[in-house]
Amino acid sequence: MRRTAxxxxxxxxxxxxxxxxxxxxxxxxxxALGLRMRYMQVDQADQFxxxxxxxRINIRLIPPARGQIFDRNGVVIxxxxxxxxxxxxxxxxxxxxxxxxxxxxxVALDDAELERALKEMERRSPFVPVTIAERVSWEAIxxxxxxAPALPGITPEVGLSRVYPLGPxxxxxxxxxxxxxxxxxxxxxxxxxxxQIPRFQIGKIGVEARLxxxxxxxxxxxxxxxxxxxxVMRELDRQEGEAGADVQLTVDARLQNFVLARLGEESxxxxxxxxxxxxxxxxxxxxxxxxxxFVRGISVADYKALTENDHRPLADKTVQGAYPPGSTFKMxxxxxxxxxxxxxxxxxxxCRGFLEVSGRRxxxxxxxxxxxxxxxxxxxxxxDVYYYELAQRxxxxxxxxxxxxxxxxxxxxxxLSAVAEGLVPTRAWKRxxxxxxxxxxxxxxxxxxxxxVLSTPLxxxxxxxxxxxxxxxxxxLVKSIDGVEQPRPEFPPLGFSENNLRLIxxxxxxxxxxxxxxxxxxxxxxxxxxxxxxxxTSQVRNIxxxxxxxxxxxxxxxxxxxxxxxxxxxxxxEDVPQIAVSVVVEHGGGxxxxxxxxxxxxxxxxxxxxxxxxxxxxxSQRARIRAMQEELPLREPAAAARGAxxx
Amino acid sequence: xxxxxxxxxxxxxxxRKILHLNWALVLxxxxxxxxxxxxxxxxAGGDISRWAEPQMxxxxxxxxxxxxxxxxxxxxxxxxxxxxxxxxxxLLVAVEFVGDIGMGAQRWIDLGVIRLQPSELMKITLxxxxxxYYDWLDxxxxxxxxxVLLPALLILLPTALVLKQPDLGTSILLLMGGAAVxxxxxxxxxxxxxxxxxxxxxxxxxxxxRGKPWQLLEDYxxxxxxxxxxxxxxxxxxxxxxxxxxxxxxxGGWAGRGFMQGTQSRxxxxxxxxxxxxxxTLAEEFGFVGAFSLLVLYVLIIGFCVAxxxxxxxxxxxxxxxxxAVAFFLYFAINMAMVMGLAPVVGVPLPLVSYGGSAMLxxxxxxxxxxxAHIHRPR
Lengths: 647, 379
What we know:
The complex is a heterodimer. By secondary structure, chain A is an alpha+beta fold. Chain A has two domains: 57-249, Penicillin-binding protein 2a (Domain 2), CATH 3.90.1310; 253-299 and 315-477 and 489-640, Beta-lactamase (3-Layer(aba) Sandwich). Helices cover 40% and strands 19% of the residues of chain A. In chain A, strands 2, 3, 4, 5, 10, 17 and 18 form a seven-stranded mixed beta sheet that branches. Chain A has a five-stranded antiparallel beta sheet with strand order 12-11-21-20-19, with helices on both faces. In chain A, helix 11 packs antiparallel against helix 24 (591-608) and helix 17 packs across helix 20 (440-447). Chain A starts with a helix and ends in a 7-residue tail after the last helix. Chain B is an all-alpha fold. Chain B has one domain. In chain B, strands 1-2-3 form a three-stranded antiparallel beta sheet. In chain B, helix 4 packs antiparallel against helix 11, helix 6 (168-185) runs antiparallel to helix 11 (315-339) and helix 10 (278-311) runs antiparallel to helix 11. The longest helix of chain B has 34 residues, at 278-311. The chains are: A alpha+beta, B mainly alpha. The interface between A and B is large, with 46 and 55 residues.
């Protein structure tokens, strides 16, 4: 509204007056604030600084004890041990080099470790304790305690560190822990404050890594008052953390130890499974390594030795290794043909040692041929031509569907690192990945487990278990968590005709027990413990026509890495199956010679729950077996098995 | 004088407005905000991306907003005052129903792009509306009881809503900011004296209501008052913040421990270190010199605002500028007093320094209004 000039002027004057008054009040208050600041920061600074330095309240995290890992009988696979270490607080040490020089006179310090510690000190706040020596002996710790006055800022500490009492036995299963690295921190979205603790151990691979959240537990914290020397004056309050959950695996430490010892120098993988529950009793990859080396910080030389070894000790071949399954794949093809009604037990084909398909010769392993072959004979004697015939009738898509039903080409959800899916090829797969059409020859190769087909030892064990039970058995590795038994699903039947399954099982039994069977040499004679199994030998190279003409493909004459892989899959006892086994010996030569004997020993060990009596073996072999048993570097049962009664 | 009474032809137009900006004020704001970035970088332990970077982005947005608001003629803003107040009030009511819970109080409203604190918005729109009101009101009626009751209600309504959230700090800010505009407009002394007396009575009532069924404040607010009166009574519980804040501040000494060298204002001691207690970090790391310099920067900002207000002949413009100056002053004065143990911990951020989105943006808009009033002042 329009105002009179007098009003306007009056109002402007009021605002000016009151505005200045307000401004003055604000200025006065600010001056008061400034004075208070001066009082606190200048006049009383010493007192506050004393408060800050002398009675500093610190919060320290209490790392929880990592959950232990047990085998199915309660044997400790991964535990914790007390370790002593020496930590330094930069701020309290003041002259760090001098203090370290003094310390060096008492304790041997590792130069590399020291350098790392000095770098870490620069990065962290001056009051954060930094470890300068780890795994120090009790004597050294006492010496440090006695000389405390000469070592300001140095404190001995006791902590827990991971230990794997069984050494290499479960290296691939448990994996190992190691100090948190910057790389780990970058990769994870985990913001657990524990990860900020220098040298805090977290799982790097295997169960340790996959079940990290469970095993780690929750940090506790304590609020402590420390004095100027960094000494803890008193604990103000404490929140207990939560120890990590104990995990019990389905594996049997004693069996695992036997398997690893039995594999010896081989590069091999063995999986033993309970066919009723899917429990993995042993899952062994050889050669193994000592996970304790990694916990302590592996030396460059040791690590180099592991990575450069052509037997690849770091790889877990049981789940990561994908191999052409060779003749062990024949059960898949046979069952596919039976189920599709394309053949019966009486259908026969004639084997002349090769089959010509679209102008190419596909050879049988037996150059002379098998004559007339029915399904039983085809598995017992492992005739290839029979399967070339089947492949043309069933087709690759029928074969691969059956392979999936039997558990091949599937990735199982186990807490292990890099579990491989293997490969069960189809027409669509080849078109997509290779841009080529599927050829009839591809089917023929696939039918004998060569060509594109790849399976892991774990998948082969699942296949055996499914053949033995006719149910969709799924492997399981975790038995219980913190004493709580993990659910054991009822496996649904796969819907195969019982007759067809019986045909396959009988053929597998004959393959390992008939005089003409490929694995006859590895039979078990003990009634009620006999096994049914199938050999497999898969080529890792192409046999040229010239080689075939010369007849030279004796494995012994080839360099190791070009020899065939030896495979064997089995279940036992053949009448009431309890366990399924798969054995893959990399470049081991023939399945019958290299893999089947191992499978037999493993089966007997598993069924007897210890070294089997010689009476289980054929009489002619007993002397040799006895010698082998005596030489096996087994761990003392007393040390391994604490209360080792089978659950 | 009101804008109806002078020729707008003499007000700068177009790009020439840039020349008439109060550039000293802009530089002061940048200086204060930069101090904030530095402190946020330090409390994050040298991590720029945690707090400093988002804060910088917000400040950049704030600067753009400020210029945008500044170049719009002040009379436009006066005409918007009632609308702006109405929207803020609606939003305040809305947070009652849809607001997110942040720090134990219903304060946020999620607009998708930003999370808005309507109570922050209200601080400015309340001042705008009151200034517009007194611009409109017949000057001789300024102290008429009926025309005093109306603005009092305009203040109390949002104050009550904010108090209910519950946000004690902001409600005090609203109350005092609004009262300051009324005072500047020339409302008679006697009213303020009466309200002050009533206030003392209310405080007594609040304290007396404790533990009774009609308890007026939340338990945590009573505890904060308790610990304000005697921080030593509970050094590990509620008084912990105050004790630690004072130790941090005091131990800074004359020149401080040095950038990033603070030990007391680290996360483990003060959980709200990047928001309400950031001043302790500054005081610890840069000592009295640093803390006092920040205070001087703030006082200079207030000084420029008051000078601009007093010299502006337009009633709306000068009341608005004064109101914003007082609101800004209350922010830092209450925050500093709180940290230094002179006021209870009520949860007021350090303006332009504490980490936080809506407070920063609203303040920049407010300074945009101050600039607009400055540019478009009658000549």
